[in-house]
Design brief:
The chain has 10 helices and 16 strands. With about 325 residues, it is of the alpha/beta class. The protein has 2 domains: about 260 residues, Ribonuclease Z/Hydroxyacylglutathione hydrolase-like (Metallo-beta-lactamase, Chain A, 4-Layer Sandwich), CATH 3.60.15; about 35 residues, no CATH class. The strands form 3 sheets. Strands 6-5-4-3-2-1-16 form a 7-stranded mixed beta sheet. A 7-stranded mixed beta sheet has the order 7-8-9-12-13-14-15. A two-stranded antiparallel ribbon has the order 10-11. α6 packs across α8 and α8 packs parallel to α9.
Length: about 325
């Protein structure tokens, strides 16, 4: 897999504001679109973004609160009106199937494509082309899941200088060695391990909202390249955050630090914060590599070895 990028479609908590729509974020893996949450107005956000709606292959709903869900029926219906034929998978907590069935029945929606509905529990919930999705229950006022997008590990780097030292001719033998095969060349057996390094870990993107700070969020985010975590309030409203099942910016930064992530992106921001600087400042005191999401912000996620050679982490 070559390119992975994140596109934020909605970054507000509870209510849309003039600057922010409610929750939705797309993760694009070589053109495959995975959509996480689908608050009201997500269709319009998609139309204004670089994300191709027709390329969405799976939708993941964290929980059944309206600011994460109310855009889903309209998006599914519009896909049919647009003549979609490819199957579309939808994942979410128990109750999502009944919700969609009631909407479809009462609004007489017909579908031109197969919609696959999965009510999830935890652990691996989807295996895709070059990736898998892992879910974990968080700590909200209702059952709510966090999700990790985990790219498959890649083969090790091919050491072309070593291959030349061994007088291996370029061509098919390189490919076989890269795939982990040992090859016979002349009167010698060349082992793949002589010219190919150890396997390289795939990229990991974690999405946690809505939740109080909890150990399961840390475990899900462990070693992630990017953690997208809610920061509904600043810490002066910590009591209100806890009562409503949310996290402060300081809480989110603590999760990022404990999990050892590469980057923290704050989202699900209360509309009361017209300026996000207080949230970012608070979080950076705990975890320096923090930024706040904005609607339509795009982030490319580079391979780790590229970052180690001086590329910016995002």
């Amino acid at each position: 897999m070559d390119q992975i990028r994140i596109v934020f479609l909605g970054t507000s908590a509870g209510l849309p504001s003039r600057q922010r729509n409610v929750a939705s974020v797309a993760v694009i893996l070589d053109g495959q679109v995975l959509l996480f949450d689908c608050g009201e107005g997500t269709q319009q956000q998609l139309l204004r973004s670089s994300v191709r709606t027709g390329a969405i292959e799976a939708i993941f709903i964290t929980h059944l609160h309206g600011d994460h869900l109310y855009g889903l029926p309209g998006l599914l219906a519009s896909a049919s009106l647009s003549g979609r034929e490819a199957p579309l998978a939808v994942y979410g907590p128990p109750g999502l199937r009944d919700y969609l069935a009631n909407v479809i029945r009462t609004t007489h929606v017909g579908f031109t494509y197969e919609m696959e509905m999965f009510e999830i529990d935890r652990d691996e919930v989807r295996r895709g082309d070059g990736y898998r999705i892992v879910a974990a229950p968080l700590d909200h006022t209702t059952l709510c899941f966090g999700f990790a997008v985990i790219e498959d590990d890649r083969s090790g780097a091919f050491n072309i200088d070593r291959a030349r030292e061994l007088a291996i001719p370029p061509g098919p033998l390189y490919g076989r060695l890269q795939r982990g095969e040992d090859v016979v060349f002349g009167d010698r057996t060349i082992r793949s391990s002589e010219v190919v390094g150890p396997r390289r870990s795939g990229r990991r993107i974690v999405y946690c909202t809505d939740t109080r700070p909890c150990r399961r969020a840390v475990d899900l985010a462990r070693g992630a390249d990017v953690l997208i975590h809610e920061a509904t309030y600043t810490s002066d409203l910590a009591r209100e955050a806890s009562e409503r099942g949310h996290a402060t910016a300081e809480d989110a930064a603590g999760i990022a630090a404990d999990a050892g992530v590469g980057r923290l992106i704050l989202t699900h921001i209360s509309p009361r914060y017209l300026d996000v600087e207080p949230l970012v400042t608070e979080a950076r005191r705990v975890f320096a590599r923090t930024d706040a999401a904005e609607d339509f912000m795009e982030i490319p996620i580079h391979h780790r070895e590229h970052r180690e050679h001086g590329e910016k982490p995002l």
